[in-house]
Amino acid sequence: MQHAIEKAEVLIEALPYIRKFAGSTVVVKYGGSAMIDEHMKESVIQDIVLMKRIGFNPVVVHGGGNAISDQLKKVGKESKFISGLRITDQETAQIAEMVLSGSIGKALVQALQNHGIQAVSINGKDGDTLVSRKKISSGIDLGFVGEVVKVNTELLTSLMKNDFVPVVAPVGTDAQGNTYNINADYAASAIAGALKAQKLVFLTDVEGILMDKDNPDSIIRRLSVTQAEDFISDGTIAGGMIPKAKCCMDGINQGVESVHILDGRLPHSLLLEIFTNDGCGTMMTR
């Protein structure tokens, strides 16, 4: 009986958050280990399904770097990276689009639909959703790596109005018809900003932003954009967390109410962050 009472208390704790965010748009950037481990994958899918069932409007933006690397190996191409971005020739861009828009996107759609939720897999070319241009990193031409210039929200909005969950592959195009592979974090941030989403959530392989990168108990539960800038300046936020933090800051500056960095390896981290008082990751606000 006590176990049943505890379950009821969890539901009661979630009630004000359900009331507050019903009808809200939540963009989930899905990546990391949560895309590889089957148990973690199912946990994330269940969270998204529940969010949809109780009145949220989820949009999923997914990565797929490991799957792209595996496919490149099969065709004898070596993956090379600069500052975390894959050097991408035309053939690599085509393979990335095939993997992201094909096997990964369709698998996520099927997983959602297995739970009775209607979903559609698109990439940024569809409806000119992600208008892009070549990205130059530190003066280096990375090939067909793109950055988002504009997000056209018509297709996304239409899908959501018709009760579908959009599942977006981070592939874009420019006016000349070039195909660009886009970092999924940046794509998610741009989409969330254009949709004026209430929440943008990054599922990662870390607990959140830490005061001490070697101490998971030093997690920063909540911070502002100004505090994040200070932490970058003083070195508290360093290395691979800097681009993640900057994506959070970009989302806030584009109108997203709050941005969350969560450990996708933690079962039901989405629900724990959004529907409980303590949360489980780092939340950034203005």
What do these coordinates show?
There is one protein chain. This protein is of the alpha/beta class. It has a single domain (23-285), classed as Carbamate kinase (3-Layer(aba) Sandwich), CATH 3.40.1160.10. It is 42% helix and 25% strand. The chain is built from 9 helices and 14 strands. The strands form 3 sheets. An 8-stranded mixed sheet has the order 5-8-2-1-11-13-14-12, with helices on both faces. Helix 2 (38-53) links the parallel strand 1 and strand 2. The longest helix has 24 residues, at 90-113. The model has no long low-confidence stretch (mean pLDDT 91).
Give me a quick take on this structure:
This protein is an alpha/beta fold and 286 residues long. The protein has helices at 2-21, 38-53, 65-74, 90-113, 154-161, 184-195, 225-234, 241-253, 269-275; strands spanning 25-30, 57-62, 81-82, 85-86, 119-123, 130-137, 140-151, 165-169, 171-173, 179-182, 199-204, 222-224, 258-263, 282-285.
Which properties best describe this structure?
single chain; 286 residues; alpha/beta; four-stranded mixed sheet; 9 helices; 42% helix; 25% strand
Q: Which helices and strands occur, and which strands form pairs?
A:
Elements: H1 2-21, E1 25-30, H2 38-53, E2 57-62, H3 65-74, E3 81-82, E4 85-86, H4 90-113, E5 119-123, E6 130-137, E7 140-151, H5 154-161, E8 165-169, E9 171-173, E10 179-182, H6 184-195, E11 199-204, E12 222-224, H7 225-234, H8 241-253, E13 258-263, H9 269-275, E14 282-285
Parallel strand pairs: 1-2, 1-11, 2-8, 5-8, 7-10, 11-13, 12-14
Antiparallel strand pairs: 3-4, 6-7, 9-10, 13-14
Helix pairs in contact: 3-4, 6-8
